[in-house]
Write a structure and sequence with these properties.
Length: about 130
Amino acid sequence: MSRPRRPAPPIRAGGDRVIPARADRERGSATAELAVALPIVVLTLLLGVGGLGAGMRMVVLQDAVADAARILGRGDDAGDAGAAVARADPVAGIAVARSESLVCVTASAETRLLGGIVVPIRATGCALDGGR
């Protein structure tokens, strides 16, 4: 038959203060939990900032393709439309599609999150094709 375990004796921490043995075993656990959680929090923040950057780039690209579609819709030079998109994003590729009464410009590019995750972005803008 086994003997029941006796609780560990209290530890004197100077003066009259007594620290129970259990509290002594748990000392530093908050630091360990922070060390585990901190990289996750930092990674989440970095992904959030990268996502905001990609969203801002998307808004700028959307505005540029709307301008390019209006330029082509007025009947101006296609080079001016390409320049409008290039000012917003120099590496974006553009494509122009015309239907009966519309001209649509699509620009596409890639953005990186955390240096390694590639996210494609694409924006399309259309305008009335009154310049033909």
